[in-house]
Amino acid sequence: MATNQQVPQQCPTNFQIIEPLFYREFEATDPVGLEWTLERMPRNVNTKRIKLDKNQMSGKWLYTSYNTNGKFRCLRCMKSGVTDIDPTWSSAYTTILFRAYYGPDTDENGQQWIGGWIQMKVFAQQCKNCDEYVTGELDDQKYHNVVKWLHQWIAHKFYGYPLPRFGYRGRRSDRHHLGNRCEACEAGWCHYRGK
Ligand SMILES: [Zn+2]
Ligand SMILES: [Zn+2]
């Protein structure tokens, strides 16, 4: 058998994992139900928190972030095969940005629809070895937690239900977080308060 070095398998993206969980959660629960669509946040969206008004809105969109614990694997370093560096790390400040809008929207045929749209983005962190930006990955339970929290947040903000509890907020004492290598810190969304 050839023992060529294996290139890491292409993993499903966070969006590909969260999307089916999202529809399962939202369709199972009235009244938030079927009206909502989840999309990737377009790359041209300015995600800087400072752009928002005091209601956390920009235009028609309402913004929020979710903080969780994630793992990062730098594929560039893994492919380079250098063995004396560890191209993986975990971070208690893995940040997911959501924005939501409920109202009329026009499809490509000019037809108007009333519905809810949610867009998401997982902020990246920069590899210490090669400076590549790497997007965090969650474990199964944390993906479920994000979706459950998102459902509660939508029910709260758009349907007036109480918000039972907030997402994992990270440990403020975490000294290992490198704010200058964190996209969420740069955009003003990271829960990290250290310096
Ligand atoms: Zn790297
Ligand atoms: Zn950060």
From TrEMBL:
A single GO BP: protein insertion into membrane
As for subcellular location, the record says:
Membrane
Query: Would the keyword Membrane be found if you checked this record's keyword annotation?
Result: yes
One Pfam annotation reads Zn_ribbon_3CxxC
State if Transmembrane is listed as a keyword.
yes
In terms of one coarse class, where is the protein primarily found?
Answer: membrane
SMART domains per record:
zf-3CxxC (SM01328)
One MF annotation (Gene Ontology) recorded for this entry: olfactory receptor binding
Please report the record's description of how this protein sits within the membrane: Single-pass membrane protein
Record-annotated 3CxxC-type domain positions:
67-188
- From what organism does this protein derive? Rotaria sordida
Q: What high-level taxonomic lineage is stated for the organism? A: Eukaryota, Metazoa, Spiralia, Gnathifera, Rotifera
A Gene Ontology cellular component where this protein is annotated is: membrane
InterPro entries for the chain: R-trans_p (IPR026096), ZAR1/RTP1-5-like_Znf-3CxxC (IPR027377)
Stated name of the protein: 3CxxC-type domain-containing protein
UniProt keyword annotations, A-Z = Membrane, Metal-binding, Transmembrane, Transmembrane helix, Zinc, Zinc-finger
